[in-house]
User: What shape does this take?
Amino acid sequence: MSRTFLDFERPIGELMGKIDELRYLSDTSDIDITQDITRLEEESEKLTDRIFSKLDAWEKTHLSRHPDRPYSLDYLEHTFSDFQELHGDRNFGDDAAIVAGLAKLGGRDVMVIAQEKGRGTKAKVHRNFGMPRPEGYRKALRLMKLAEKFKIPIICLIDTQGAYPGKGAEERGQAEAIARNLKEMVTLKVPVVVVVIGEGGSGGALAIGVGNRVLMMEYATYSVISPEGCASILWKDASKANLAAEALKITPNEILELGLIDEIIPEPRGGAHRDPGKAAELLKIHILKHLKELEGQTEEQLVEDRYNKFITMGVVLAQEDEV
Assistant: This one.
């Protein structure tokens, strides 16, 4: 269980600290304080529910970035099995910000394309903080085409603040790599299920986000730009990121209402970082449900379904008296 608490979680952390003290006392003495521990645990659950029911968009943004939140590698270990990583774009090199390969999910063969931020300083640097370069997106597309050849469903896990904007990435065609993925993913003849597990930032997320089904974890975010970046542009002040987060409509409930995703995957009480094992199981259940729904579709239906899904996004129908 995570022991890192964000500012709004501190009352929960204090209560959990008291529970830990009582458990230690119970283990090291003959005093029976089981009832006191149970009472405080119930109080902690009620407090968590009360705090999390009132979270605003900026607080949910911090949850999506929680340092203890499960990353793609965690889900590859606990949601999938028999993962065999595949490397390289056969053009320039490999990109550790995107982890991809074959795996099993509920007995099914799947191709997993996942963005990985890395945990700890060395891993973060190795993974480029989850910001893919062009070779990462080209690797992803190469493996998607491989999956299509062998009729294997594709699962994409999104967790990035955005594509890497560095000079080398631009020189190697970052924009072209993202654009090509968008174009090619629409025409894939196998089921594609996309899940935003943490941050879904801009084209860096969308480059592996064109799916027949697009899901979001309960405390994930999905946006065309980070709140800080938006605030810097609109108000020339990144400290107004909380206002930008509200305006951007980046939370799952708002995005579901706009029709941009298909379902919200519930998280354990207090977020996925409080019970990663349960979060992994919930992720598995929902992916398998959507894969089962897509299995009966023909190749033509899968392509048409995906095309229609994205072509209608953002369409506004005028009222008759406005025409």
User: Anything to note?
Assistant: The CA atoms of residues 144 and 207 lie 12 Å apart.
